[in-house]
Amino acid sequence: MNTVPLFIDGKFVSSKADQFIDVTNPANNEVIARAPCATDDEMQQAIASAKSAFADWREVPVPERARLMMRYQHLLKQHHDEIAEILAKETGKTFADAKGDVWRGIEVVEQAANIPALMMGETVENVARGIDTSSYIQPLGVCAGITPFNFPAMIPLWMFPLAIACGNTFVLKPSEQDPLTPTRLAELFEEAGCPKGVLNVVHGGKDQVNTLLTHDDIKAVSFVGSVPVGQHIYKTATDHLKRAQCFAGAKNHSVIMPDANKQQVINNLVGASVGAAGQRCMAISVAVFVGDSKQWIDELASEIAKVKPGLWNDEKAGFGPLISPQAKARVLSLIQSGKDQGANCIVDGSDFSVAGYEQGNWVGPTVFTDVKPDMDIYTQEIFGPVLCCVCVDTLEEAIALVNRNPFGNGTSIFTANGAAARKYQHEVEVGQVGVNVPIPVPLPFFSFTGWKNSFYGDLHAYGKQAVRFYTETKTVTSRWFEDDIPSGPNLTINLG
């Protein structure tokens, strides 16, 4: 049995833990590895290593840090398909989806290689007579990241490359459900030339997370995951006077206007709703049909019903299994609640399996109509391949519906009318808006900007906001007196 190692002080080490968590293949639930719950001593070692390394790493010139990221992104590209295969086998994602996961992470590393420009401060000469003021961007210290199962390459790469490029050191606690991918990311980072202690990787559950949240030497915490855990992490971290950015749940709506391109709407909503088995915080889980666009629901449902789950290396598979039996049970429970509460299930994937892999966590594509805002399938984040269809008469009603929802991660509108698109993007209370784009995840030179209960904190992931999150600003006001300038024919100024 493959026991996942810890990465502490530049070495991969076997944990002395007496508790382990099984890592399973979601397609058949066979155990493929086990992740240790790092001992308290190992947690302390990882944090101490990061603290010790910070003293030297913060003094490494910014261009050298950028070169480390250049070497790292080169290695990630070289090993792109290998990482994607590891990822697909432990998450159940299709190979195409896994490759997308890896690539979106690589894009953030490319942005980290641009760190010299992002670390620039500001200067004003003569803020008063003979007085100048400059600001400098400096690292915080030891930062921590706690990442989820659904993007085991992309989300760790959202965090530690930018934090480290800013001059910090980092302790990563990846999801215990798929730790093999983050371990490979750490191996390649070491190969790229990461000094020992700059990145440390630990494994475990709540106890290990709480150690990171309460330790005096951890200065900032980044998290992506569920709402209850996100709230706990944000409250605990801030109670211990740390910076925190916590990305949590979502309920993303796509508004379909009757003047939209019908075929584009159908093509886009199929993948946006059931792709990745719905296990992504930017999945479209509610389609809001305005006016006569409701006539397209049956055709959309017919196309969604054609998408079949399958194994990671099945090129015909539209998506893979859910991550765990517990996740499957929760999704099936919500599907049943929709039926019980009066929604019309026009595509039912609750009794789906793949031949030879009947023990896997399979749920087929599912579509509900006649969904009301008080139903569980609407109020809760299903995190499965389930689309809820809601009908309204006007764009104003659609905007009001979306704005009443407590989440604000992503939304989209499909329309051929620029005024309608402009009204929607201006009035909707959601952080990331797509116009004729179903899943509007920004590229890394912007930031990932969820709102409301989808995010707890002030500064978001990647882009300029992440640099601000992982740094502090020092402002220097200086004055030099011209009377102090030496004079004389034998004056020599030694600049050595």
UniProtKB/TrEMBL annotation:
It holds the Pfam family Aldedh. InterPro entries: Ald_DH/histidinol_DH (IPR016161), Ald_DH_C (IPR016163), Ald_DH_CS_CYS (IPR016160), Ald_DH_N (IPR016162), Aldehyde_DH_dom (IPR015590), MeMal-semiAld_DH (IPR010061). Keywords: NAD, Oxidoreductase. GO terms for biological process: L-valine catabolic process; thymine catabolic process. SUPFAM superfamilies: ALDH-like. GO terms for molecular function: methylmalonate-semialdehyde dehydrogenase (acylating, NAD) activity. Its EC number is 1.2.1.27. PANTHER family: MALONATE-SEMIALDEHYDE DEHYDROGENASE, METHYLMALONATE-SEMIALDEHYDE DEHYDROGENASE [ACYLATING], MITOCHONDRIAL. Belongs to the aldehyde dehydrogenase family. This is methylmalonate-semialdehyde dehydrogenase (CoA acylating).
